[in-house]
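ugh ok so i messed up the first submission bc i forgot one of the chains. this is the corrected input, ALL of the components this time, i swear. 699 residues overall. if the numbers dont match what u have on ur side tell me asap before i send this to the collaborators (the ones from the other lab, u know who)
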Amino acid sequence: MARKLVTGNFAAGHALALAGEANRRARGCAGGAYPITPQTEIIEYLRRFEFSKGRIVPVESEHSAMAVCMGASLGGARTFTASSSNGLAYMAENVFAAGFYRLPIVMVAVNRTLGPPWNIWVDQGDSLALRDAAWLQLYTDSHQDLVDTILLAFRVAEDPRVMLPTMVAMDGFVTSHTQMVVDLPEQEQVDAFLSTGCDVPHRLNVNRPTTVGGLTWPKETEHHRREIQDAMENVPAVLEEAINEFEGVFGRRPDGAIAAEHTEDAETVLVACNTMARTLRGVVAERRTAGTKIGMIKSKLFRPFPRQAFRDALSGVKRVGVLDRNHSPGSGGIFWPEIATSLSDQSDTIVQDYLVGLGGGDVTPEALDEIVEDLLQRECSGDPVWKEVAA
Amino acid sequence: MSTSTIEGQSDGVTQCEHLLRAGNTNCAGCGMSLGLLWLGEALDGHMPLVVIPACCGIVTAGAFPTTSYSAPVAASTFASSPAVATGLSAVAEMNQEDNPVICWAGDGGTYDIGIATLSAAAERNENIIYICYDNEIYGNTGGQRSSATPEGVFTTTSPAGKSERKKDIMAIMAAHRIPYAATLSIAHRDDFLRKLRTARDKQGFRFLLIHSPCPTGWKSEPEESVELVRHAVDCGLFPLYEVHDGRRYRVTIRPDPPTPEAVDKYVSRQRRFRHGMLDTDKLIRQIEDQWRYLDVMAREFSADDAIR
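and heres the new structure output, hopefully the right one now
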């Protein structure tokens, strides 16, 4: 294991490439590559990497990048790509198709504000707009979390009990273009962790000709959706197993569906994802030093939404503040209703939404502390609060 | 197909004898039916991997869990068949599997929504046989204009008759300098099979355009389908030719120069061309112009010559 100072995009490209290379003894790996800021360096890394059995196809659009992944996955290969923002929106039709086809594609989504107006900075609205596409979604708060979660994503996506595509999200620029020291895995470790190899049971097979993805009646369609729901419900246990095995191979333990801190005795808990969770960690620590019974949850798994984990962690908590760096116009933040629904049997708990850092505004510790102060004063929940931050 | 289960899915089969089985949902007189049967024949038993985007061709399979196709088929999104085929072809190649990867798409998926994907796969010279069955209309949705619809044709979205000419997709594909592009007619079986086999035996991106009658959209009689497209060849409207490497042309069936009578034989039996609304003189001038171009190319850039 090499400890290196690398960017988030380098870390993601490295993890994807090693996972692809690990499938060289099975049917190889493939993916589509199309540039968009701020993920471009990932697909550049993949195009540079010399796979012993793999091909990264330089396509003409994100829509085709996902289509190449689908074709290669239907051929039985391990498949992956990366995209951002309007690229994800342009890709959307095939993102849904990959989910409904149940192809275990792994995609890194580098979160960037959807345009117009054009803005390259972080906002999770792009990946969250694809939440209903039958993909797992995992949000990462550091470069190490990113690398580890990408490797976990292949294990979980390709598990026969899941067999669904998986998106691993990171913050544009804040993660993608900054450098952190990372334990970069070696090929042998990834080979060991992904030793089973990718097998897509419904891949096109000349010895068993079937028509994949053709017409279905309502009854079969409903059954298909129900099977996807059942597969989603298998995810928390499969993810936990994968984390256990990850720890055995790599000697460190990545966060699971959620990471709860100081919630045991907390009256007030804030929830955040991606790098905002890291900023929040410092704010919560200072408040605890000052005697406030406060905790936090880093929300990592968004699909399937880990309702039970939230219920367990937030049982008896008086106030929950949700930090949403995303916006569903006409509703509010997108994490908020998910968490509120999880706590529907806790009628005494206030679940307050804060829209903060939209369009990439710099979310400082001071801004988060002001949100904490607002939350502590609340006796009932209200409409989402717009917390504007400078720059 | 040699064996099949009651579900219509086959087990332990590697030979593809009849690509399209009986009991499929094609309309009577659909050009796809002969096209698929002859495609199967030209493959000489080689099992293909087939990608079919949204179009009548995926309805042909029938509803899950049955299928009328004897080969593995992936139903792709409308614009994506060449990109899905790219992925399949890449994995086949890295696993030393030589099953031909074939896209079977309509004109909407080829000329319109899928043209960027098609162009990109052709530019990369992917190892794919792309076959467009061109019925000159969005047939699956009940008959709307596409950029393959000829001028003067009435559709539900060109209710006054289409005012634009049919797009020259062959010129577009030839401009990509792909190894092989050809036009095919189900009225000329020998020519059809020879071009399929030529495509089969080449590597890289191959594009085949089938003039495919659609009685529902053309408002024609199903039993006249083959004769209709024969008239299209005879009057010069649908030239049968091939282009090697985007540069070397060969005319494979040469009709007599166009006449109003020959054109009338084609258009008068289809109610999509309404009586009195078609400018026959203009159409004949267009046909003559197309043939002047093809004749120059076939003479000056002949497929019989080595590349200079």
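quick check: The CA atoms of residues 43 and 237 of chain A lie 31 Å apart. that seems consistent at least. The mean pLDDT of chain A is 97.
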